[in-house]
Amino acid sequence: MPAVYGIDLIAKRDKKIKMDRSIVKGWNVHYQTLEEVEEAARKKKQKEEEEARKQAERDSEEEEESARHPRARNEKKQQIDEAYNRKTGAYSGHYGTTPVKDEGQKQQIHAILNEKPEPFEAAMSTIQAQDKGE
Fold it and tell me: What is the pLDDT of residues 66-114, one digit of tens each?
């Protein structure tokens, strides 16, 4: 019985180099057995069924919620419609309309805006000078 050794990073690298440098040869090809193919198909089908079940649960919860609060559902739909930005084709209409509450984000914003104040001030003074000149 042959000895079984674990594959380390060097062995993986060597195998990759060997495959990159060679023409397709029998030892580089992995033929899937029928059992492997069936197992992959079974796992895929099981995953799809679970996703469909979860989606059905979410849909039923949303229907129950909308039945209990029809006005809240209409308001939510209206907010989503208002958030759609036709220029960008994305739902980013409410981005930046609420104040920042997180202190870490406030510090990041402050650092970014005050990173290079001199070029900004120079550009603003140039624009103001052009406006006065016209």
Answer: 777 767 667 777 777 777 777 777 776 666 777 888 888 889 888 887 8
Under 8 Å between Cβ of 78 and 72 = no
Contact predicate 48/55, CB 8 Å: no
**In this structure, is the dihedral angle defined by the CA atoms of residues 96, 101, 102 and 108, taken in order, positive or negative?**
positive
Token digits for 114?
């005050």
Look up the pTM and report it: 0.33
**Residue 73 in contact with residue 66, Cβ under 8 Å?**
yes
HEC per residue, 44-65: HHHHHHHHHHHHHHHHHHHHHH
Rounded distance between C-alpha atoms, residue 93 and residue 80, angstroms: 9
Question: DSSP of 65-134, one letter per residue?
Answer: HHHH-HHHHHHHHHHHHHH-BTTTTBS-TTTT-S----HHHHHHHHHHHTSSHHHHHHHHHHHHHHHHH-
